[in-house]
Design a protein that fits this description.
CATH topology of the domain at 3-181 and 234-265: Rossmann fold
Largest sheet: 7 strands, parallel
Distance between the termini: 38 Å
Order of helices and strands: EHEHEHEHHEHEEHEEEHEEHEHH
Helix content: 40-55%
Structural class: alpha/beta
């Protein structure tokens, strides 16, 4: 049984990915210092899978503590999620984002090199594309300047891996995913925002549940079909399964490439207002949202061409936008019981 280290395993996507890995025959361990998470999702992942999951509560910026995990386990693959991820927070405290996201990645790469871990999947982001000239974006689309320090840490993280891959025996996959949303169909795990939600869907569900006093749409004067930003929303369980497929591809397909890049999106561009309407449809209620000023760091529009992930990884996203909203709402309702 292959042991996969998941960094950020107590987080939103990490917890869903550990469930998917366990369901597909892998063993998992987690590193998460819980600075942006608790243990709730880890406990939920254990409940869904029926398996005990070891989490090491250490900071990846601490190299010696990180290295000790590699000494204690024979790790065949790494999925590296752990990072600060708020676009607007990164605009306010850029040095915090550069320090946390880059130092932690350097340390995990140093350990992968020293202990000769053969397979590495990096959690990247569509933010690396910036305001692309043409959409949908493909993996070959030229990257523009990132619109936020968070996006720049992902661009730098990709560059770091590309350089390391030239001299490393480790093979890498970089997954650029778009806007993960929804929750596990069981409603046992889902998105738990750190502080006030900055992602749209948890803001919608918290507002609908009465936890937020206002739901803001940041800008209605963009050059889009209804004036709001366009994003590619993709269910978190679909994203999670792509990581399992990526690890399996690295283990089983003996390719010569040092690294490969895949877009993870549905290929459907959805405006913020259309997403709100989808929630209203499944929840059967109207939301009295407020139009606010544009938010620093937001790009106008981005959605994916996912042909490569479908063709090479065999990835087929299964959840519709309405199902994303329904599972997110079911999760929110489970939290208020």
């Amino acid at each position: 049984m292959h042991t996969i280290l998941v960094t950020g395993g107590c987080g939103y996507i990490g917890s869903h990915t550990m469930v998917d890995l366990l369901e597909n025959g892998y063993d998992v361990i987690s590193i998460d210092n819980n600075s942006r998470s608790g243990t709730h999702l880890l406990e939920g992942a254990q409940k869904i899978s029926g398996r005990k999951i070891k989490n090491y509560k250490i900071d990846l910026c601490d190299f010696e503590a990180t290295r000790k995990v590699f000494e204690d386990h024979s790790i065949q693959g790494i999925i590296h999620f752990a990072a600060f991820k708020s676009v607007d927070e990164s605009v306010l405290v850029p040095l915090s984002y550069f320090n946390n996201n880059l130092v932690s990645q350097i340390n995990i790469l140093r350990c992968a090199e020293e202990f000769k871990v053969p397979n590495f999947v990096f959690s990247s982001s569509c933010s690396v594309y910036g305001n692309a000239d043409v959409i949908p974006v493909t993996e070959e689309t030229p990257l523009k300047r990132a619109e936020s320090p968070y996006g720049r840490t992902k661009q730098m993280g990709e560059d770091m891996i590309m350089d390391v891959s030239k001299v490393s025996s480790t093979r890498f996959i970089l997954l650029r995913y778009f806007n993960p949303t929804g929750a596990h169909p069981s409603a046992i795990i889902g998105e738990v925002p750190f502080g006030r939600p900055t992602n749209l869907v948890p803001a919608i569900t918290q507002f609908a549940a009465g936890k937020l006093p206002v739901l803001k749409v940041f800008g209605n004067d963009y050059d889009t079909r209804d004036g709001s930003c366009i994003r590619d929303y993709v269910h978190v369980s679909d994203i999670a399964h792509a990581h399992t497929l990526a690890i399996g591809y690295l283990i089983n397909e003996k390719k010569d490439k040092d690294y490969e890049i895949f877009n993870l999106g549905t290929g459907n561009g959805v405006t913020v207002l259309e997403a709100i309407q989808a929630f209203e449809r499944v929840a059967g209620r109207k939301l009295n949202y407020t139009i606010a000023e544009r938010r620093a760091g937001d790009i106008v529009a981005v959605y994916a061409n996912n042909d490569k992930a479908r063709r090479v990884l065999g990835w087929n996203p299964k959840f519709s936008l309405d199902e994303m909203m329904q599972t997110a709402w079911n999760w929110e309702l489970s939290l208020v019981k």
